Amino acid sequence: MSGCVGPRGDGYDPGALMTADEAQAHHAVQIAAFASTSADQVTAITMTNTAEAIGVVRAATAAGVTAVVSFTVETDGRLPTGQPLHEAVAQTDAETGAAAGYFMVNCAHPRHFGAAFDDDGPWRERVGGLRANASKRSHAELDEATELDEGDRREFAAGHVALRARMPAVSVLGGCCGTDARHVAALCAAWEAH
After folding, report:
1. Interatomic CA distance for residues 48 and 31, integer angstroms
2. What are phi and psi of 129, to 5 degrees?
3. Helix, strand, or coil here: 2?
4. How far apart, in Å, do the first and last CA atoms of the chain sit?
């Protein structure tokens, strides 16, 4: 069972960054609460920066549960801080002894993070999950939107499949903003067909 934690602030904006130690202290209370239940994992979604991700992993390790870190990226495939995704994964692993169970990407369309996986290396083996947005809009555009953007389900699914060869460890698939069961069904059907 997994408990879910989010960023301290806005999931689209890193705002005032914490140090890794501050992030560990901030998230430790909620993570300890999960650890006192039958939860054996904590998933930190929409992480905008590595210091907070490092703090989450350290707090989970101290509490005796596995952490999964899901970064969000902008339309250029970089974290909202500007850091490339591959560097964020590598830095988090380097500063936590690779204690995270795996990493994910969430709250971005496959078109936004596809080019990030052009960077080769062992970091790609650490990405085990994707929870993408249906919309191709930027986070700023989504913030201003007055109606839900469901995007195109076929394009959403095809975008995942196009990346599959560069994401050999992905075993968790799902949807984020604007998705529903129809998007997930299209994604699963397309993924299984290839």
Report:
1. 19
2. -155, 155
3. strand
4. 29
How far is Cα 104 from Cα 117, in angstroms, rounded to an integer?
12
Structure tokens at 85: 């995704």
Q: Which amino acid is at 99?
A: A
Burial class (CB in 10 A: 0-12, 13-18, 19+), 123: buried
Return the structure tokens found at 111. 């078109």
For the chain, helix (H) and strand (E) counts, in that order, are 7, 6
With CA atoms as reference, report the closest residue to 55 among 79, 84, 31.
31
| Confidence (pLDDT) at 144 | 84
Q: What is the pTM assigned to this prediction?
A: 0.94
Q: Any idea which residue has 């839900």 for tokens?
A: 148
| 53 vs 5: CA distance, rounded Å | 11
Q: For residues 65 and 99, what is the distance between their CA atoms, to the nearest angstrom?
A: 10
- The per-residue pLDDT for 129 is 97
Q: Find, among 154, 149, 121, the residue nearest to 136 by Cα.
A: 149
